[in-house]
Every structure is written in structure tokens, then in C-alpha cells.
Design a protein that fits this description.
The complex is a heterodimer of chains A (287) and B (323).
Chain A (H helix, E strand, L loop, with lengths): L7 H8 L16 H12 L4 H12 L20 H11 L4 H12 L7 H9 L23 H16 L7 H13 L13 E2 L2 E2 L4 H11 L7 H14 L3 H15 L16 H8 L2 H5 L2
Antiparallel strand pairs in A: 1-2
Helix pairs in contact in A: 1-12, 2-3, 2-4, 2-12, 4-5, 4-7, 7-8, 7-9, 9-10, 9-11, 10-11, 11-12
Chain B lengths: L3 H20 L15 E7 L7 H11 L8 E6 L14 H13 L4 E6 L7 H7 L2 H4 L3 H4 E3 L5 E4 L8 E4 H5 L2 E11 L3 E3 L11 H4 L4 H6 L1 H11 L3 E12 L7 E11 L2 H11 L8 H5 L11 E5 L2 H4 L16
Parallel strand pairs in B: 1-11, 2-3, 2-7, 3-4, 7-9
Antiparallel strand pairs in B: 1-10, 5-6, 7-8, 9-10
Helix pairs in contact in B: 1-2, 2-3
Classes of the chains: A mainly alpha (287), B alpha/beta (323).
């Protein structure tokens, strides 16, 4: 384990807002996404900061079960997936969890609807994908994208692992097929699709790492080459966010994060990155 | 009655005075933003990024009658994505020159904000694009608009409302600094569509799919309406043709296009690119907010004919050609 990971809990404790949440940056208003990641990073230590975080998150749950992304915005948000994962990780299997999971299961990308399937059938080369395989959108009423789908799949796996929902297997299987269908020719994942207007799309490190984490050892991936690619990408990029997801993927499958020779201190100013790098994804997601 | 040639000569003389004034830090608006019923658009020749870009921009600002004194200015580059082998982003030299320009014009505050279209680290993209190296005090100027605080604006393009980055809404002047590019869904992406970057990914996800679902054309036009205090600088020194805005090819054009009427600027850019602006949906929809028709646009500096460069279009958009 990289030595710099150890200082992240201290940074997160020091940057928690009075309302119990975390902003994307220190001193900024709380958002659900950094709050959920920070709570996941602190969950192992059974930190009291997590309890304060739960108080805020519960206040953000809507009547439909979904969570809003922050106090200002009252709309169902994709990051409900993160709350489901967090609930499973912290053992909060209560009504908050059940209704959040219920909303997640009722949500899907619109590309599977009849009108959109007809459009795709008429012009299949505009965006090449199998429209029968829907994932999750960033927002209600939109098409599926790789990142919200990967997060939702991770949430469903955690929920299934909790032993409460054996009925999730078909949706998990469908989502795995969707992600595999969207895999780019270069072996990784773009943000949405693999081919648009006849042109292959390139993969990106963030989405590739997330998709691989969500696929959780699926036999169709070809893991040796995929993880070697993740390792190469980690060494080749200087993006803190990309490195955070790539190292999380390596932690999950190879048991340790790469050593960051060129950066000994965490990116304290970006709390999203700090939190993601502090999460024991190997313990949360391992089969 | 002053002929067009005579007017351009007078404008050039005024611009030279303004440029000289700006270089001493006391720039004043010397020309109106356009004749009554018309919008002024400046077209400036710039052969490469190594010419004196501050001087070019100062001349363009003077030709358009830009007044930024005492204003909080948000410079909004196009950093939808970065690829060192391509020309996706607004060139760092242009953005750096714009910072100097607005300092000389007396802006009270100059921020730089962008919410990249992909879920990437905005600071990383800015560093890769050379912004941090090229621009003084970059770290204290830059705002990641994807993760900014948000304010709701209602209604929006047939929907009840939209949340937008607060930094952009609170600016006295939003300066859209775009690269001249073709776009595989919209036909062309210029100063107006560049405003998609003020829509926060933290609310709507990436790549701002909310706007695609609601319709690119109506959303571009609506954002144009929401930000009435704005200015445009389009970097056409090297543009992008073909499968833009990300996978296209570099297309040298050697031009900068500037103006306060973003619709007029974009319409002019289209004509330079040999695209009919009347066939671009968002320009049709924005024609009530600005001038798109050529007789209503007062070209200052170079003429369109002097700089016209045919940008290659994907097969689906061949019908957008002029003529």
C-alpha cells in the first residue's frame, strides 16, 4: 500500500463541513458525491464523521427514494448509487437503503425505449451499440453512460452481497453485457459508446478503470492485458482523478496501489480525489 | 455618405489609436458596438500563434467598441477535452493574450472558468493545455465550472429550469473564447455553443447530456439569452474541420473573429468556414437575440472574402454549404 494513503483520513476529517458533508474542495458547500466517497474512505475506522455524514445524506433523500446531489438542487441524482454502496459497506440496511435501491432499480437509460430503438434501427451507424442493453443515465430521461452504469453495477453487487436481494442477478447480468457491448476497439471504455458516425472512439483512463472495477472479474474481459493497460495508463498520466481511479482498480485486482514516486502528498485541495484514493475498494467490491 | 471602404479606413485609424492607448493601460472604447440595427464583428488576420496576439486582440476589441473597465470578467475557453496531437481546445496563447487584454482594458477581476465536456480533471486539462504555464496567477483565476456552486435559472429551453455555474452568472462580462471548429451534431461549434461549459457536470453529468436531450439548438440559443453581457473571441488561427469537435483535423485559417453579438460572430465564422449560418439550427433560433443575416452585420477589419477557408464537413452535413 502506498504510504501517502495513510494521511487521507486526517485530511478528510479536517475538511468535513459543519453540516456533516464534504464539498469538492475544502470550505465549499457539501455535495453528495464527495460526501459519499469521504464516508467510504472513513468507513473502515468507524469514524464518528461517518455518522454525521449519514445525518446529512438522510436529509437529502427524496420521497421517490433517490437522493439529491446537494442542498440547492432538488432532483433525483445518479449518485444515489454511491449511497447504496455506502449503506452496504457501513451496514446501514434500513429503509433509506431499501428505497434508494428501489429507485435505482426503477431507473434505466432511455435508449431501450421503443422510440429510441426505432431511431437506432433506422440509422444504426450514428451510434453503434446494442439498444436492448440499457445501463444507467446521468439523469432521469437520458441515455446510459459508462460511469453512472459502472457505479450502479457496483451498488447492485454490494446489495446482492449483503444477502438481502438475490433477485438482483438478472439486472447485474444485463448491465455486465451492456458494459461489454460498449467496450472500445482499443480495449478500454469511452464515456458513452465505442463507435459514432463510423469512427472508433478512444478509451479514457477514468472510464476504463471504473468499468473494469464494475465488471468484477467477468470472464469475458481478458484481465491480464486489461490490468497491464491500467498499470501503463497510471504511469503515463498525470491526471490526479485518472490516477485515483486507475490505482483503485489496481488495488481491487492486485491488492495494492502503485507507488507515486512523483507525488508523495495527496491532492488535498481536491477532496474527491483524496477520498477516492482513501477507499479500500478491494474490501468493498471484491467478490 | 461614407463608403464601406472609407468607413473601414476610419475604423482602422480609430483602432490604431485605441490599440496604442490600450498598450499604455488606458484603453477607451472608441467605436460603437455597431451601427443602428447592426452588430459589429471584427475579423483580424493572424498568421500564427507567435504574432503579437495582445495587439491583435486589442485592435479587435477597439473595432468592436468593447468596454470592460471595472467589470468582473469571466474568460470561458473551450477545454471540452485535451489531446496533444489535436486542436480540440482554445490555444493557450490566445487565452493568455486575452488575460493581458482585459487587464489593459481595466477589468476589476479576471477569472477563467470551464466545465469540460468529459468527466476529466479540469485542472489537469488546463495544465496539459499549457494554461498554467502561460497565464499569470492561473491557479487563483481558474474555476472548475463543473464543480462550482450552482443557481437555478427558469425556464430553460422548454424545461422548467436549469442549474448553472454561479461564477458565470455573477460575472459582469462573460467572454466566450472558442476555437473555430466543425461539430458532428451541431454543424459548427463557435462562441455560442462554447457556453455549454457553464452547465455543471456535478448536476447533469458528462458530457452535458441534459442539453443533448433537450436539443442542442434550443439550448445553445437559450444560454445565449441567459448571458446578455458577453463578448466573443473565436480562435481561427488553426481551426478544426471534419469530425469535430474532438476527432477532427487541424485546419489553418489564420484569423481571429471578435464581437459583442455572439450570433453575429458565429454567423461570420460560418461564412468564413464556407458554411451557411442560416442552416445552423442554433443560429436560426438565436436570430431574434442577435444578427445572423449578412446585411445586418458590420464587418470591421478584414473582409470575409479575404480570409474565407473552406472547412471540410462530414458527409451528413454537406447540405450546410454556402451557396
Amino acid at each position: 500500500m502506498s504510504k501517502c494513503v495513510g494521511s487521507r483520513p486526517a485530511i478528510l476529517r479536517a475538511t468535513q463541513n459543519p453540516d456533516g458533508g464534504w464539498g469538492y474542495f475544502p470550505g465549499k458547500p457539501s455535495w453528495l458525491e464527495p460526501t459519499a466517497y469521504a464516508m467510504l474512505a472513513l468507513a473502515e475506522e468507524r469514524d464518528t464523521a461517518v455518522d454525521r455524514g449519514w445525518s446529512l445524506l438522510r436529509s437529502w433523500q427524496r420521497p421517490d427514494g433517490a437522493f439529491r446531489p446537494c442542498t440547492t438542487v432538488d432532483e433525483a441524482h445518479w449518485s444515489t448509487s454511491l449511497v447504496v454502496t455506502l449503506a452496504c459497506t457501513t451496514g446501514v440496511i434500513d429503509e433509506t437503503f431499501q428505497s434508494g435501491l428501489g429507485w435505482l432499480l426503477s431507473s434505466a437509460g432511455v435508449e431501450g425505449r421503443p422510440f429510441f430503438r426505432l431511431v437506432h434501427w433506422l440509422r444504426p451507424s450514428i451510434v453503434e451499440f446494442d439498444p436492448s442493453l440499457s445501463g444507467w443515465p446521468w439523469e432521469v430521461g437520458a441515455s446510459s453512460w459508462v460511469e453512472p452504469t459502472a457505479h450502479a453495477l457496483m451498488a447492485l453487487r454490494c446489495a446482492a452481497k449483503s444477502g438481502r436481494r438475490p433477485d438482483l442477478a438478472p439486472r447485474i447480468s444485463l448491465t455486465e453485457r451492456m458494459l461489454l457491448d460498449r467496450r472500445c476497439r482499443d480495449g478500454g471504455w469511452n464515456f458513452g459508446n465505442r463507435r459514432v458516425l463510423g469512427a472508433d472512439l478512444p478509451s479514457y483512463p477514468e472510464t476504463t478503470a471504473l468499468a473494469l472495477m464494475a465488471l468484477n472479474g467477468h470472464a469475458a474481459v481478458g484481465w491480464g492485458a486489461a490490468l497491464d493497460g491500467v498499470d501503463r495508463a497510471w504511469h503515463n498520466t498525470r491526471s490526479p482523478l485518472a490516477r485515483a481511479w486507475l490505482s483503485s482498480c489496481l488495488l481491487m485486482y492486485r491488492g495494492m496501489r502503485p507507488e507515486a514516486a512523483d507525488r508523495d502528498e495527496p491532492a488535498a485541495n481536491d477532496l474527491l480525489v483524496t477520498a477516492i484514493e482513501g477507499i479500500r475498494w478491494d474490501q468493498i467490491l471484491a467478490a | 455618405m461614407m463608403t464601406r471602404r472609407g468607413f473601414l479606413g476610419a475604423a482602422a485609424a480609430s483602432a490604431a489609436v485605441a490599440a496604442a492607448a490600450s498598450s499604455t493601460g488606458c484603453a477607451r472604447a472608441t467605436l460603437s458596438a455597431g451601427l443602428p440595427g447592426k452588430s459589429a464583428v471584427a475579423i483580424l488576420h493572424a498568421a500564427s500563434y507567435s504574432v503579437d496576439l495582445v495587439d491583435c486582440l486589442a485592435r479587435g476589441a477597439a473595432l468592436c467598441g468593447l468596454n470592460a473597465r471595472g467589470k468582473r470578467v469571466l474568460l470561458k475557453p473551450n477545454l471540452v477535452e485535451f489531446d496533444a496531437r489535436s486542436v480540440i481546445h482554445t490555444q493557450a496563447e490566445i487565452l493568455a493574450a486575452a488575460v493581458v487584454l482585459f487587464e489593459r482594458l481595466g477589468a476589476s477581476e479576471i477569472l477563467i472558468g470551464e466545465g469540460p465536456g468529459h468527466r476529466r480533471d479540469a485542472w489537469f486539462l488546463a495544465e496539459e493545455a499549457g494554461y498554467r504555464a502561460a497565464i499569470s496567477h492561473f491557479d487563483s483565476r481558474f474555476v472548475d465550472l463543473n464543480r462550482d456552486e450552482v443557481t437555478r435559472v427558469a425556464p430553460f429551453a422548454g424545461t422548467p429550469g436549469i442549474y448553472l455555474a454561479r461564477t458565470a452568472l455573477e460575472a459582469d462580462l462573460v467572454v466566450s473564447i472558442a476555437r473555430m471548429k466543425t461539430h458532428h451534431w451541431a454543424g459548427a461549434t463557435l462562441s455560442m455553443k462554447n457556453l455549454f461549459g457553464v452547465v455543471p457536470g456535478a448536476v447533469y453529468g458528462w458530457p452535458k447530456n441534459h442539453l443533448h436531450q433537450a436539443g442542442i439548438g434550443p439550448c445553445v440559443a437559450e444560454l445565449n439569452r441567459i448571458f446578455p453581457r458577453r463578448f466573443a473571441i473565436v480562435d481561427g488561427i488553426v481551426g478544426m474541420e471534419g469530425n469535430g469537435p474532438i476527432q477532427g483535423r487541424a485546419r489553418p485559417c489564420g484569423v481571429l473573429v471578435m464581437g459583442s453579438d455572439l450570433a453575429a460572430v458565429d454567423a461570420t465564422c460560418c461564412r468564413i468556414m464556407d458554411i451557411d449560418p442560416g442552416k445552423i439550427e442554433y443560429l436560426q433560433l438565436a436570430s431574434g437575440q442577435g444578427h445572423v443575416h449578412e446585411p445586418s452585420i458590420e464587418q470591421r477589419g478584414e473582409s470575409i472574402a479575404q480570409v474565407r477557408t473552406r472547412f471540410e464537413l462530414i458527409p451528413e452535413f454537406q447540405h450546410l454549404r454556402l451557396g
